[in-house]
Design a protein that fits this description.
178 residues, alpha/beta, eight-stranded mixed β-sheet, 3 helices, globular
Length: 178
């Protein structure tokens, strides 16, 4: 399937989850994720977009940097250590103030996903923010995708600038593509 078709299907599937199903899936993902979050690691996370039924990682312990859009037109973002957040024009919680962390400082980046395939390719919202940011990170930075659903067989139309995941976590299991 092509990315646009996958986006449409998965967004519809998310809306069909009951509150209980969503909560249970989220909890299983967090259980798989927690062992990676060891002290001393520099980690980028994300704030869930409530109206998109994204998994909230707010229960995780640690100091995390969060994405803030620099330029929507250029599809660029930065990661910021901050305690205060405000919704962007798209309804995404973004850091207010805080300290910008360089892309090369991260050991782990947690990536929100709509879908991923059995090769570690991913589908997000289609604006390329994460691809551009991940291209600036160290090669050994662990890229972990967070998904509510199992992988699909194959994402068609993967381009050379698409950066695959090292690991994907979904409710059923953890997939290691390294």
């Amino acid at each position: 399937m092509k990315k646009a078709e996958i986006r449409k299907i998965v967004l519809a599937q998310r809306t069909q989850l009951t509150e209980k199903e969503f909560r249970e899936r989220s909890q299983r993902v967090i259980e798989f994720l927690t062992p990676f979050l060891t002290p001393g690691k520099t980690i980028a996370s994300f704030k869930a977009i409530p109206h998109r039924n994204e998994i909230s990682l707010d229960s995780l312990k640690g100091d995390f940097a969060f994405p803030r859009v620099i330029s929507a037109a250029e599809g660029s973002m930065e990661m910021v250590l901050a305690a205060e957040f405000a919704n962007s024009d798209w309804g995404i919680p973004e850091p207010v103030g805080g300290t910008v962390v360089k892309p090369t400082d991260f050991d782990i980046i947690l990536i929100p996903l709509l879908a991923f395939d059995k090769n570690g390719q991913r589908v997000g919202y289609g604006k390329g923010f994460y691809d551009r940011y991940l291209a600036l990170c160290r090669p050994d930075c662990l890229k972990i995708g967070i998904s509510l659903f199992d992988p699909i067989d194959l994402i068609e139309g993967v381009e050379s600038h698409d950066i695959p995941l090292d690991i994907a976590i979904c409710p059923a299991k953890l997939y290691d593509f390294r």
